[in-house]
Amino acid sequence: MNFAAQLFYSSYLSERLERLYSPRLALKDSEENDPFWQREELHLGPSQPGASYKCCPISNGTVGRRPTLIEPERLKDFGEEELLNGDVKVYDTKVVGGPEIMLMDPPKTRRVSEFRIVPRPPAQYLRFEDISAAAFRIQSGIQKTPCTYSRLSKQYGMEIYLKKEHLHYTGSVKERGVLYLLTSLTQGVIVATDCNFSMAVAHHAVELKIPMFVIMPSCVSSPRLRIYRDYGAMVISYGSTGHDSQNHARHLAKENGYLYVEEDESAAYLAGLGTVGMEIYEQVPKLDAVVVPAAGQYGLLAGTAAAIKHLNSQTLVIGVEPEGFPLLLQSLKTDSPVKDMHSNPNKKLYGDLMERSLGVNTFQLSKKLVDKVITVSEEDSLVAMLRFQEFERSTVDTEGAMGLAAILAGQLPELRGKSSANMELELVRQCVDRALVLDDRVSKFSVQLGEWPGDMAKLLDVLSREDVSYEFLYLCYCKVECVVETRDKSQSAQLRKTLSDRYPSIFWLDR
């Protein structure tokens, strides 16, 4: 902007300010009758072109005291005449309040007992999420065992699948729970019981590079101790009984900051065992029933049932116990875990069941999830072991054979087998021999022969014609005992009839 333009703008601004803020003391007569909104002073700017006003003083960038634009005389137009004459008119003012607000009575104080307390559902001891987490954690250390169709299906008129848990490194299903339990530990462990659980702990602790000690009494056989050493555990022989070694193991664990481990019903251990149920459900289509042995392995039954019932609540879960130690069945009848079981099971066949107990949590899970609990005899279990060897080419112990034993006894419409091989060879041989006797395929008799040399030859001729295998034991006074093996029950019955007709004095020994 040039100098001329600045001068013109300053002049124009001064005129406007003077016109706006200059006081007017009187009005022209001609303006009294004019409407006030048409009067000149209400319009901005000069009334005529070129007119100007003197500017009022400005301080600090603001205009000084400014008179009101509407003069006191003009207030007549608003009807306030009394104020112009100096008279003051007083108006009576009545303050009208709002509607009265009534406060409510304070709430009545109630006792805690008056409130309805809705109980929260109890937390589940073993959830399916725990089993899934265990399956993910142990998948690299535990192989997924097959669940195959059995050739026994046609013989018994039903589709039978066998979960072959004996294929684990230690031959025991307990490896699943042990491995998941050990993955949460950072300290060394000590075991003092010679069982499948201790073998699983020894193997997987060494694999996880966890310091491992095994305290065993002197009565444990050397081959068993060699197994622990082969796994890589440090074996210490102490005491003459199992109680001596267990007490010493607890003392060493306390003094050295180790963890004394024994089979229990911890949630981690049961979750690892429950992975069996997940694999069964994945491998077998249209699953109707799962039969689980429960001889000293109630955690396996509870964990498997928790997985199966979550995946399909319509699938039956059946537990099988030996007749000589029906701990779970008696506990269900009394509605509480039985502590003292007055029975004497065959320890060689079923392990040391007398020291096993049923925990509260395992009992509650079994009570809620297991549909049926049955018992099988020792004889049926032995015959089932024989069937496994003949048809499945698998060596299983009596606990693993109890599922098939339930079918042999005619107690189940459908079966799901579960097996584990954990028996010494000598015991397996004894079990097979007895199973052959129970199946009427091995018979033993004694007979009194005459003094003539041809009497023995005649007996041998009868046995040869019957096409049986035999073994003689010669006793004094021409008395002999003979063990014969037949193909099946029908041949055994025919042999008994033939020998009884020929030798009335024959005596068949008890099975």
UniProtKB/TrEMBL annotation:
| Annotated Pfam families | PALP (PF00291)
Keyword Lyase on entry = yes
Origin superkingdom: Eukaryota
| Recorded GO MF terms | L-serine ammonia-lyase activity; threonine deaminase activity
Q: GO BP, one example? A: L-threonine catabolic process
> Could you tell me which InterPro entries the record lists for this protein?
Ser/Thr_Dehydratase, TrpB-like_PALP, TrpB-like_PALP_sf
Q: Which UniProt keywords apply?
A: Lyase, Pyridoxal phosphate
Task: State its cofactor.
Answer: pyridoxal 5'-phosphate
The Tryptophan synthase beta chain-like PALP domain sits at: 139-416
Against PANTHER family, the record matches this protein to:
ACT DOMAIN-CONTAINING PROTEIN, THREONINE DEHYDRATASE, MITOCHONDRIAL-RELATED
What is the protein name stated in its UniProt record? L-serine deaminase
Q: Which organism is it from?
A: Seriola dumerili
The uppermost taxa in this organism's lineage are: Eukaryota, Metazoa, Chordata, Craniata, Vertebrata
